[in-house]
């Protein structure tokens, strides 16, 4: 076997870890192809939420999250990812894997992947350490985005106002409501938002969406989460993909620091409320892509169960093999 080429089992392991990435409504809107040393991430248009995400922002951000998760997993397994972003329509990334000397930091970040949860419960009223805020901010800037943590009343009020407005507009949209109900309140499903992970009794935005059949009891007391807006300089498809990569890095860094976290996209899904956040929260200088909640769980709050994922055989598909009928298929390509 060529030691400079990744084997199929290594790539399969990296993808199995990568698909733990968060995605809008846990739609997991991606699939993968692998041939030789090249891995291709494709957007799954059949999982595009057309009423929630009319311009495909959430879909690309979700693909950016899984792309970064993959690079983290690959690095821990001894492979560095050289990424070509958006090489063609429907293909967010084409990745060439090259040998890499794994470092302790690679392993630590990969170990955070199965521990991360999207936690929509109230967080404890405990400030983040300045050192941790610096680490979190750097994790985003290293991936081409910026995170602005909000610590003043006017900007927090503007963000909350935009989130409440978005929630009210969505509640008045019957097609959105049908789509949300179809993708939440799930039981025994490999995708969608499980009932056991959705907080009961939707509360004030921006914390909780109106998920169907929510079964998770909330924690008590006021919410002490730190809110941040993850933003980019422009708002092209490449910026949205980069925002997803930065969000993944931010969440995994938070998990390494033993912090709870959750991404919020609802206020960014409508042009009017997104513009309000851009102008009144970011001063018109940056393009908002995501809101992030980070903080500490209250004493005694139980851990959340992992949300389900589709089987690896459903998301990793082999390319068309150049081998005719009756010809042997190389061992590393079998069973993919």
SSE layout and pairing:
Elements: H1 8-18, E1 30-35, E2 38-43, H2 57-76, E3 79-88, E4 91-99, H3 104-112, H4 130-141, E5 146-149, H5 153-171, H6 174-182, E6 184-186, E7 193-194, E8 226-232, H7 237-256, E9 260-264, H8 271-281, E10 287-295, H9 312-315, E11 316-317
Parallel strand pairs: 1-11, 6-7
Antiparallel strand pairs: 1-2, 2-4, 3-4, 5-8, 8-10, 9-10
Helix pairs in contact: 1-2, 2-3, 2-7, 3-7, 4-7, 5-8
What does this structure look like?
By secondary structure, the protein is α+β, with helices and mostly antiparallel strands. It has nine helices and eleven strands. The strands form three sheets. Strands 3-4-2-1-11 form a five-stranded mixed β-sheet. Strands 5-8-10-9 form a four-stranded antiparallel β-sheet, with helices on both faces. A two-stranded parallel ribbon has the order 6-7. The longest helix has 20 residues. The C terminus is likely disordered.
Mean pLDDT: 92
Low-pLDDT windows of residues: 320-336
Distance between the termini: 18 Å
- Please count the helical segments: 9
Q: Which range does the strand content fall in? A: 15-25%
Largest sheet: 5 strands, mixed
Quantity of strands, as a count: 11
């Amino acid at each position: 076997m060529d030691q400079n080429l990744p084997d199929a089992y290594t790539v399969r392991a990296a993808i199995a870890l990568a698909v733990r990435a968060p995605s809008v409504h846990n739609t997991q809107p991606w699939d993968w192809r692998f041939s030789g040393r090249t891995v291709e991430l494709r957007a799954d248009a059949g999982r595009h939420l057309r009423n929630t995400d009319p311009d495909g922002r959430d879909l690309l951000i979700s693909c950016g999250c899984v792309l970064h998760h993959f690079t983290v997993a690959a690095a821990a397994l001894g492979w560095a990812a050289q990424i070509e972003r958006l090489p063609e329509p429907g293909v967010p990334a084409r990745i060439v894997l090259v040998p890499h000397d794994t470092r302790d930091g690679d392993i630590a970040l990969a170990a955070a992947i199965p521990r991360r949860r999207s936690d929509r419960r109230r967080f404890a009223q405990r400030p983040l350490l300045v050192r941790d805020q610096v680490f979190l901010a750097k994790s985003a800037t290293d991936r081409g985005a910026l995170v602005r943590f909000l610590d003043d009343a006017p900007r927090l009020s503007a963000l909350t106002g935009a989130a409440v407005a978005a929630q009210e507009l969505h509640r008045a949209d019957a097609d959105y409501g049908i789509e949300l109900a179809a993708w939440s309140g799930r039981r025994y499903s490999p995708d969608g938002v499980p009932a056991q992970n959705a907080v009961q009794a939707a509360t004030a935005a921006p914390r909780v969406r109106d998920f169907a059949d929510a079964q998770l009891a909330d924690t008590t007391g006021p919410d002490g989460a730190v809110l941040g807006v993850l933003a980019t300089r422009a708002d092209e498809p490449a910026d949205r993909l980069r925002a997803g990569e930065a969000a993944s890095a931010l969440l995994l860094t938070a998990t390494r620091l033993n912090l709870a976290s959750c991404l919020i996209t609802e206020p960014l899904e409508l042009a009017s409320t997104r513009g309000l956040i851009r102008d009144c929260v970011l001063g018109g200088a940056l393009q908002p892509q995501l809101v992030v909640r980070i903080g500490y769980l209250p004493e005694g709050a139980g851990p959340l169960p992992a949300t389900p994922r589709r089987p690896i055989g459903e998301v990793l598909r082999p390319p068309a093999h150049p081998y005719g009928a009756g010809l042997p298929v190389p061992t590393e390509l079998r069973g993919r």
